[in-house]
Amino acid sequence: MAGFKLIQNYLSSDSDEDCDNEKFDSKPVADSQSINNHISLTRTLIFKFHWIDSFVASMKKICSSVDPFILELNNVRVYCNEQRTRTFLGIECHYLEPSFTYLMESLNKLLAEYQLESFYEEASYHISFFWMLGDRDKELKSYVEELNNSLNQVLIKDLDKNYIKVSKLHCKIGNKIYIFTLKS
Fold first, then answer.
1. pLDDT tens-digit series, residues 91-131
2. What are phi and psi of 88, to 5 degrees?
3. Cα 74 to Cα 5, 33, 93, 165, distances in angstroms
């Protein structure tokens, strides 16, 4: 299995004084996990072994022609996977530069060459920071307003945290992580 992620340990506060998570954390939540913060650029994909080297070479070529870009953080949203087997909390990210659009168009064309599905047509790029087993959409939506208030408190205190500069992509294929540096 493979997937592209922009890996960013972001908003994983060194101190909990930046936001009040007490109400959220005190609720017993079965089958939940916190996860490494990342922004997915593809669905989870299955690669044939003999595709890997050519795919990696193509990605190096694409990334070497893409300028680094900035993503802006917005609101917390609830996401559920297509199979409705996992529900996620994520912070929406909006791209501010055309280089991100070019990257996604190039990545989707490359996936099509391997007859793999592109990212969702109406993509909502986001930093996933929490997941639960099952379709827990309604349950988690009850926390969104409170989480958005906490997020906004953090972002107002440090405006630089509103933006993420992306200069590398990480791609995990099997148990190996490939790092692609964007044009410098």
1. 999 998 899 999 999 999 999 999 998 877 778 899 888 88
2. -125, 155
3. 18, 22, 6, 15
Q: Is 87 left (phi over 0), alpha (psi -120 to 50) or beta?
A: beta
Q: State which amino acid sits at residue 56.
A: V
Residue 30's alpha-carbon distances to 27, 76, 94, 151, in angstroms, are: 10, 21, 31, 24
Strands 168-173, 2-7: pairing kind: antiparallel
pTM of the model: 0.75
Question: 50: exposed, middle or buried (C-beta count within 10 Å: 0-12, 13-18, 19+)?
Answer: exposed
Phi, psi dihedral angles at 59 (to 5 degrees): -65, -40
Q: What pLDDT, in 10s, does the model give residues 68-84?
A: 999 999 999 999 988 99
User: Length of the chain, please?
Assistant: 184
